[in-house]
């Protein structure tokens, strides 16, 4: 019986809803101002097209932003009753929903992630975070921090490039709900949605200075962290930078939360629902091109089902669609930057050199932009570098285990401890594993699920402090 | 009388030897996580199918339709009209493909067969005390033999859901084997056997997966979700579980089995979601009327309307398409 291939025709989302300006300034005290530093370009990682010129904030700019935030904190925001702050947060949440398509398209252009993820995952959770913390703003005395919890002051917040708008929401929503004001620095490769968020703050009539957004690279971040005028540092990003921040802040009275790297174990037992486990493995490591700090980058599979599971996984990986992030049928988009692509390549080559079996489905990669195929390494052991270091890309290391105790031992044998996954039909085994895994989040029969009501954060080198949920308020209250 | 020894791999021969081994095997299949399965089906449902891919899908879906009438009020006139439509779904467009089959009660088979002639459209008959399956085995087999004798190319049987739900797997297995035998013709040109689970009554995805394996081991040519008489009928996740089962069965035995969702699929958009799911879960081999069917009565006209829209750029009203 002859069959014709079912080739999906391109289904691109229109870019016309997004208006990208040729250049952007800094958002300080409710207005866009020119920066004093040089400017830099942000590009689309899927095409390498230059999108806009972005201002780089120098120390003077950082100082101006912190002063604006301090003034807004002292004069307006900390004095405002919680129910009034809530109104602003609700208003921001609703504008995010109204402008969700614009935000999703811009996020995909600037970050390289597939539109189906920015549209169906990122932006809805962004709105949900503002709604959720809006609900807390007038109920802080019930948060378990005493009857009269107080805000900390000005928060300096630095966010990464993997979930630009989502990380912004995780940082800004609880800070504002608790009465703090913020100076936020988005990553240098993905500043555009944060700058669109600045416009949303204007649209919501947020008092000037409550939210300030300064763009720039590491130097700008250092200036922000080191500024004496901030009371709190919140950072999400690499463990190395996290350690540097911890050193800078040590000895001051600044409060710090760090959400850093991970090397999560996704543990599949022999009684697992296999087809769903395969989906969970795919979601765990190929969601957002593996640019996820809690990605399930180490697959620990029980030896008795390893062959069967790997066959299923390879077949499933062959159906992943790689390409234009704006195509609605794209599953895997572009790697965020040339630098990140180089790191993924380097570590993958090391994996091969150390003797692990490398496999990728046949797929054509676009000729422009930064791309890496979904990749699987078999025969990996704890001694391989790819089993220990965070790759932050679509690269999965497969290890095997024989007993639950061995699975726990291997899962915990890592400098990190952000997340883990357990796949089994046996409820008691899930609870047994969850109790022993040293990870901030343990997903059972699912992976990479996020919700504003659920706290998120790490053990060991994955950082400290929690974001999300009632626990997330603690980081912004005294 | 035991097709297992010829069609199944040696491994599965032992499985069907006793009630206990059958139960051990079916309960040893990997479980289905409901939340995960439904999320996966919903994800596949968001694929955006446009232009050439949509044209391909619409024509393929038309070729996969089992145009169905299963009413107490069916008459020769009614089924003749349906058979005519099956051959020429769109009288205004000779390029429009025929559907796969016309599905009727056994007593209507001869009439339909006569109308269809050598058009290539198959006659499918529901049998085995459809839709409840509540009759003695010899009556079910006589029902089947009657339809086969009248010229049915395909038999849609129902399983005994009571037996299945009370764990009498051997009984269900034996009934399928016996019905398959009743599909035989002296010339060896046997009628294809489609086994209907009535997934709305089996309820859990674990049951659907077990029923799928049970039927395939018993020699089913097709596994089918529903009679169309019970709600919910076909759903995307239920069909996906069955498609996973036929995929895994081929992996193990080399044998291909077809899948037929029936009941409740009314729009082209829905039909395309099923095709996308089949394409991505089982692969292109199943994108063929020989291996995938839609049991439907109202779906066809929506497919025709969308097809005309693709060709002309305009929607025409329902009156531009024949009722039956």
TrEMBL record, chain B:
Its EC number is 4.1.2.4. It comes from Nocardioides conyzicola. PANTHER family: DEOXYRIBOSE-PHOSPHATE ALDOLASE. SUPFAM superfamilies: Aldolase. Keywords: Lyase, Schiff base. Pathway: Carbohydrate degradation; 2-deoxy-D-ribose 1-phosphate degradation; D-glyceraldehyde 3-phosphate and acetaldehyde from 2-deoxy-alpha-D-ribose 1-phosphate: step 2/2. It holds the Pfam family DeoC. This is Deoxyribose-phosphate aldolase. It comes from the Bacteria. It is an enzyme of class 4 (lyase). Belongs to the DeoC/FbaB aldolase family. DeoC type 2 subfamily. It catalyses: 2-deoxy-D-ribose 5-phosphate = D-glyceraldehyde 3-phosphate + acetaldehyde.
């Amino acid at each position: 019986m002859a069959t014709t291939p079912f080739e999906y025709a391109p289904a691109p989302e229109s870019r016309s809803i997004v208006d990208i300006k040729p250049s952007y300034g800094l958002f300080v005290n409710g207005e866009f101002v020119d920066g004093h530093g040089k400017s830099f370009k942000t590009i689309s990682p899927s095409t390498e097209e230059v999108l806009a010129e972005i201002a780089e904030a120098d120390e003077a700019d950082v100082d101006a932003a912190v002063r604006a935030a301090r003034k807004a904190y002292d004069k307006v925001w900390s004095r405002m009753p919680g129910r009034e702050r809530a109104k602003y947060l609700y208003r921001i949440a609703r504008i995010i929903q109204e402008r969700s398509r614009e935000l999703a398209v811009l996020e995909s252009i600037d970050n390289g992630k597939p539109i189906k993820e920015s549209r169906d995952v990122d932006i809805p959770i962004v709105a949900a975070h503002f709604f959720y913390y809006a609900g807390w703003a007038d109920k802080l005395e019930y948060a378990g921090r005493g009857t009269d919890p107080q805000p900390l002051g000005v928060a300096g917040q630095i966010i990464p490039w993997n979930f630009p708008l989502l990380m912004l929401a995780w940082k800004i929503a609880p800070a504002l709900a608790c009465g703090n004001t913020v100076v936020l620095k988005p990553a240098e490769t993905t500043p555009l949605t944060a700058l669109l968020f600045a416009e949303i703050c204007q649209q919501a009539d947020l008092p000037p200075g409550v939210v300030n957004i300064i763009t720039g690279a590491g130097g700008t971040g250092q200036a922000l962290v080191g500024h004496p005028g901030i009371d709190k540092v919140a950072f999400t990003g690499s463990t190395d930078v996290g350690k540097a921040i911890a050193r800078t802040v040590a000895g001051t009275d600044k409060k710090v939360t760090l959400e850093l790297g991970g090397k999560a174990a996704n543990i599949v037992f022999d009684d697992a629902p296999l087809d769903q486990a395969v989906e969970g493995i795919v979601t765990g490591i190929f969601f957002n091109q593996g640019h996820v700090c809690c990605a399930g980058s180490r697959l620990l599979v029980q030896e008795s089902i390893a062959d069967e599971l790997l066959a299923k996984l390879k077949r499933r990986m062959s159906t992943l669609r790689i390409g234009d992030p704006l195509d609605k049928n794209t599953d895997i988009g572009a790697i965020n930057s040339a630098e990140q692509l180089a790191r993924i390549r380097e570590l993958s080559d090391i994996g091969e050199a150390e003797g692990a079996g490398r496999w990728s489905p046949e797929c054509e990669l676009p000729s422009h932009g930064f791309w890496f195929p979904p990749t699987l390494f078999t025969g990996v052991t704890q001694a391989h570098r790819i089993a220990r270091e965070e790759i932050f890309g679509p690269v999965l290391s497969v290890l095997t285990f024989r007993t639950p105790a061995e699975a726990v031992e291997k899962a915990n044998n890592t400098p990190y401890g952000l997340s883990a996954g357990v796949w089994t039909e046996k409820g008691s085994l899930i609870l047994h594993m969850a109790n022993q895994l040293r990870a901030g989040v343990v997903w059972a029969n699912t992976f990479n699920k996020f919700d504003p009501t659920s706290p998120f954060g790490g053990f060991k080198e994955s950082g400290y402090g929690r974001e999300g949920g009632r626990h997330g308020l603690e980081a912004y209250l005294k | 009388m035991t097709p297992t020894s010829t069609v199944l791999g040696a491994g599965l021969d032992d499985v069907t030897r006793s009630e206990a081994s059958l139960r051990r095997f079916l309960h040893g299949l990997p479980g289905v996580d409901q939340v995960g399965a439904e999320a996966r089906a919903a994800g596949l449902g968001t694929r955006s199918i446009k232009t050439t891919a949509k044209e391909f899908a619409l024509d393929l879906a038309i070729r996969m339709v089992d145009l169905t009438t299963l009413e107490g009020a069916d008459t020769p006139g009614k089924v003749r009209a349906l058979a005519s439509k099956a051959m020429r779904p769109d009288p205004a467009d000779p390029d429009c493909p025929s559907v796969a089959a016309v599905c009727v009660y056994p007593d209507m088979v001869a009439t339909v067969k006569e109308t269809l002639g050598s058009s290539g459209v198959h006659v499918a008959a529901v049998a085995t005390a459809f839709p409840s399956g509540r009759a003695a085995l010899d009556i079910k087999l006589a029902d089947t033999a009657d339809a086969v004798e009248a010229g049915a190319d395909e038999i849609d049987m129902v399983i005994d859901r009571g037996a299945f739900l009370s764990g009498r797997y051997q009984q269900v297995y034996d009934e399928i084997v016996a019905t398959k035998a009743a599909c035989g013709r002296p010339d060896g040109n046997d009628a294809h056997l489609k086994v209907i689970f009535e997934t709305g009554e089996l309820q859990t995805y674990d049951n659907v997966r077990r029923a799928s394996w049970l039927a395939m081991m018993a020699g089913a040519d097709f596994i089918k979700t529903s009679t169309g008489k019970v709600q919910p009928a076909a759903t995307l996740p239920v069909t996906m579980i069955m498609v996973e089962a036929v995929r895994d069965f081929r992996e193990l035995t080399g044998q291909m089995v077809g899948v037929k969702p029936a009941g409740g699929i009314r729009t082209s958009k829905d039909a395309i979601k099923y095709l996308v799911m089949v394409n991505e879960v089982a692969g292109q081999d199943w994108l063929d009327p020989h291996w995938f069917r839609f049991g439907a009565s109202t779906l066809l006209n929506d497919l025709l309307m969308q097809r005309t829209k693709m060709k002309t750029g305009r929607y025409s009203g329902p009156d531009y398409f024949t009722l039956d």
